[in-house]
Specification:
112 residues; mainly alpha; flat; nucleus
Length: 112
C-alpha cells in the first residue's frame, strides 16, 4: 500500500528552502540554527509574501487532493480501518499524590 501523502510546507518553509543557500553565502560558517534564526528575521521583515503564500496554498490544495485520493483507494488507516494513530497519546498513568494533596485531605477529615 502507498504511504500517506506528506503534509505541505508552509509559505515560510518554501521561502526558506529557496533562500537558505544565499543566507549561508552571506554569512560564511553560520550554524544551522543561526540560518533558521536569520531566516525568521528576514521573513518577518519581508513585505511581499504573496508569491510564497500562493505557492503554499497550491501545495495545500495538491495535498488535500492527494489525501482524498489516498483515502478513496483504501488508505487512511483511521480507527475505522483498524489502524493505530501514531500520534495518539499514551494511556495516562495514575498520578501519585503529592505531599500537598495529602495535607489537603487531612484538612478535609478534620472539618467533618
Amino acid at each position: 500500500m502507498a504511504d500517506k501523502p506528506k503534509r505541505p510546507l508552509s509559505a515560510y518553509m518554501l521561502w526558506l528552502n529557496s533562500t537558505r543557500e544565499s543566507i549561508k553565502r552571506e554569512n560564511p560558517g553560520i550554524k544551522v540554527t543561526e540560518v533558521a534564526k536569520r531566516g525568521g528575521e528576514l521573513w518577518r521583515a519581508m513585505k511581499g509574501k504573496s508569491e510564497w503564500e500562493a505557492k503554499a496554498a497550491k501545495a495545500k490544495n495538491d495535498y488535500d487532493r492527494a489525501v482524498k485520493e489516498f483515502e478513496a483507494n483504501g488508505g487512511g488507516g483511521g480507527a475505522a480501518n483498524g489502524g493505530a494513530n501514531k500520534r495518539a497519546k499514551p494511556a495516562k498513568k495514575p498520578s501519585k499524590k503529592s505531599k500537598k494533596d495529602e495535607s489537603d485531605e487531612d484538612d478535609d477529615d478534620e472539618s467533618e
